[in-house]
Amino acid sequence: MIGIIKGTVEYRDDPYLIVDVNGVGYKVLVPLTVLAKISGLGESIKLYTHTHVREDLLELYGFSDHSDLKLFEYLISVSGVGCRIASSIFSVGSRSEVIQAIVGNDVSFFTAVPRLGKKNAQKIIIELKSKLGSGVDLDLSGDGKESNEIILALKTFGFSSSESQEAIRALQGKGATVEEKIRLALKYLGK
């Protein structure tokens, strides 16, 4: 199967790109996050790909980061979640936001994805929560576990995942302990 495509962008028609690799054009479906990084035609690109094969279909799904591909493959392992829906999840949020939604039981994050209902959103959370653990498996950052604790604490105060993540970014390394960071995040969100 095709694991990596490295070439130049020949054509763009959202949600796919045609990538020229030594004279052969590969049609690769990509999420909006990848499309947003492309400045124009002729640009060099490297995509980690998943090859999806059915008896009547052969599609490539591409991601700019291997960790995104790994999460995509976790998502499509959930019964009822196909490649297009899994790719659409990345168009709603980044890898870290998807993982935070899974770890934080945020069904509303997934129901914002077109064609993804509440039951499948719950299935994603139930089936992947144990696989992803604290999110460290996918190398979010060195303090992924700490961020998860802060987000879960802020959610108990009624803040959404996106508000909690914004507060964590606003901390910019302030606070020595998790408790101190939670206090500073609450102060930030209280403004």
Task: Describe the protein.
It is a single chain. With 191 residues, this protein is an alpha+beta fold. It contains nine helices and five strands. It has helices at residues 32-37, 66-76, 83-92, 95-103, 107-111, 118-132, 144-156, 161-171, 178-189; strands at residues 4-13, 16-21, 24-29, 44-54, 57-63. It has a five-stranded mixed beta barrel with strand order 1-2-3-5-4. Helix 7 (144-156) packs across helix 8 (161-171) and helix 7 packs across helix 9 (178-189). It is globular. It starts with a strand and ends with a helix. The relative contact order is 0.10.
Cα distance spanning the termini: 51 Å
What fraction strand? 15-25%
Shape: globular
What's the mean pLDDT score?
86
Q: What oligomeric assembly is this protein in?
A: single chain
Considering DSSP H and I runs of 4 or more, what fraction of the residues is helical? 40-55%
Give the biggest beta sheet.
Answer: 5 strands, mixed, barrel
Order of helices and strands: EEEHEEHHHHHHHH
- Structural class computed from helices and strand pairing: alpha+beta
The largest beta-sheet arranges its strands as: 1-2-3-5-4
Q: Give the low-confidence spans.
A: 134-143
Please give the radius of gyration in angstroms.
Answer: 18 Å
Q: Total helix count?
A: 9
State the total count of DSSP E strands: 5
